[in-house]
Amino acid sequence: MTVHQRIIIRIPRVRDPRVTMLRERPVRWHEKKADHCQRAGEFVGAAITDAHSVDLMLRDGSRLRAKLGSDCPALDFYSGFYLAPGSDGKICADRDAIRSRAGGSCEIESFRRLVAAH
Prior knowledge:
With about 120 residues, this protein is mostly beta strands.
């Protein structure tokens, strides 16, 4: 007998409290190098802040930017999306995709760690 298991994680779109509390001075983010693969269980929310990327909020309060291809507009994911981790329980750039609730999908080209500018 062979048992197959598939896990799909729904990532809700959230409002960033740092932006809404500081309307006159929104947070500016700098991109830094990030690991190629991320543990899927760490993602707790997302925000669309750019035409070709999705910002992912992590349990520890940090952020990652998932860069998508230029032919894949992030606005397609505005109503929410799903991530399906590999058998290793991770989401990896150049391997995994973000799937929109409408049925489309885009491969993640890279991850970038976001650091608030001071």
